[in-house]
UniProtKB/TrEMBL annotation:
InterPro entries for this protein: Anti-sigma-factor_SerPK, HATPase_C_sf, HATPase_dom
Lineage of the organism: Bacteria, Bacillati, Bacillota, Clostridia, Halanaerobiales
Keyword annotations from UniProtKB, A to Z: Kinase, Serine/threonine-protein kinase, Transferase
Protein name (Swiss-Prot/TrEMBL): Anti-sigma regulatory factor (Ser/Thr protein kinase)
Pfam family, one: HATPase_c_2
Matching Gene3D superfamilies: Histidine kinase-like ATPase, C-terminal domain (3.30.565.10)
UniProt GO MF annotations: protein serine/threonine kinase activity
Domain Histidine kinase/HSP90-like ATPase: 7-136
Origin: domain of life: Bacteria
Length: 143
């Protein structure tokens, strides 16, 4: 699985998202709704890494992104690796969307969106690295 590794800065956000979308388009995954969902998920993950993963360090960290499209099993796998503080989105409860906005806790909606869009989410931390793996079925978008 090839990957892209760049400094975790907002300046690189578009390049990181384009890496995933360009790869999807190479496999003729051109459905606008699917591409929008992939863009949204990538943006949510990457902005969180950029804004929070390295906030306690005095230097810019890196984020590595890998994208694998499996035409046999009809799935797309996104992998995000960073060396920032440990963060497992699976530990966070979904927000209570039935509450009025004024009564909801701040934050967490992006995580909820990712959980809603993706079919499978895995997280592990090893050797000081966070690895987030997101899997989405593309059976409806590939022949």
């Amino acid at each position: 699985m090839t990957s892209l590794k760049l400094p975790a800065t907002m300046k690189n956000l578009d390049s990181m998202i384009s890496y995933v979308l360009d790869k999807a388009k190479k496999f003729n995954l051109c459905d606008k709704k699917l591409l929008y969902k992939l863009r949204l998920v990538c943006e949510e993950v990457l902005v969180n890494i950029i804004n929070y993963a390295y906030q306690d360090l005095n230097e810019v960290g890196y984020v590595e992104i890998a994208c694998d499209i499996d035409t046999k099993d009809k799935k797309i796998t996104l992998k995000f690796i960073d060396e920032g503080i440990a963060f497992n989105m699976l530990d966070y409860e979904d927000p209570d969307l039935t509450l009025p906005l004024s009564e909801r806790k701040a934050g967490g909606l992006g995580i909820y969106i990712i959980k809603t869009i993706m079919d499978k989410i895995e997280y592990h931390r090893e050797d000081g690295k966070n690895t987030l793996i997101l899997i989405k079925s593309i059976a409806n978008f590939i022949e």
